[in-house]
Amino acid sequence: MSFSARFSQGAKAAIPIWIAFVPSSLAWGIAAQSHGLTLQEVFLMSAWVYSGPAQFAVLVPLAEGKSAATVLIAGLLMNLRFLPMSTALAPFFRGVKRLPLLIASHVVSASSFIVPYLQFQKEREASGGASVADGYGNLGFFVGIGATAFTVWVVGTTAGFTVALGFPPGFEEALKFILPGYFAGLLVAEMKGKTMPLICFVSIVTAIPGALLNPGWGWLATAALVAIIGWGLEKWLSRA
Questions:
Q1: 152 in a structural domain
Q2: How far is CA 223 from the centre of its chain?
């Protein structure tokens, strides 16, 4: 099947992602405005970073005037998850040249990963487990999802910023709850099994001392430490 036909298939498959992106992108745009970002900064961050969790994570350090290194490392830690996602998708793009893959990699997200990955797995099983040969066709399906979802995210964040400009004076204090609310929602969604409660406990115990010891880097070092401990706990519990 041609690239354009598969692109259209991907765009249709992305409709649920668009619906999910609308409220979250609007929320980030509103939060960004309340934290002092300009419209140009909102647009550029959404276009270049394109990662809801990372964009939410760097709002506070940006607003507090933290160093560029702190902001970059925070974003990097949040986006390391894209490495295993890209690795899992790579076998389905065999035969595709590096430049198209490099361009397409910009629109990798959790949503644009899982939908194509499940679709490619389904197609592989339907073909009796044969290896996937239509690399460019698969790339078209992926780009159909990723590029359209990317557009919705960028438009949604800039729209959220514009909407926030119409809020009355003083309302920005209430908007600051969007950021902790966003991460609280992510946390609740992951509250399964024994690992997450233990990670939450470790976070509570280490966060305050870390912030007191070094207000600039303490929170980032604590986040990295908790991530390592969480990874170790998952490995240990899976073997138990």
A1: yes
A2: 17
Residue 179 in domain: no
Confirm if 141 and 119 have CB atoms less than 8 A apart.
yes
Say if 38 falls within a structural domain. Answer: yes
pLDDT of 197-234, one tens digit each?
777 777 777 777 876 777 666 666 776 777 777 767 76
| Domains held by the chain: number | 2
pTM: 0.74
One domain, residues 160 and 203: no
Q: Are residues 73 and 169 in the same domain?
A: yes
- The answer to whether the CB of 133 falls within 8 A of the CB of 94 is yes
Domain boundary among 173, 201, 224: 173
For residue 57, give the amino acid letter: A
The span from the CA of 48 to the CA of 69, in Å, is 17
Q: Does the residue 181 lie in any domain?
A: no
Residues 135/97, Cβ–Cβ less than 8 Å: no
Q: How far apart are CA 115 and CA 166, in angstroms?
A: 36
3-state secondary structure of 119: helix
Q: Cα 150–152–157 angle (5° rounding)?
A: 100
Q: Quick check: 131 pLDDT over 60?
A: no
Q: How far apart are CA 70 and CA 80, in angstroms?
A: 16
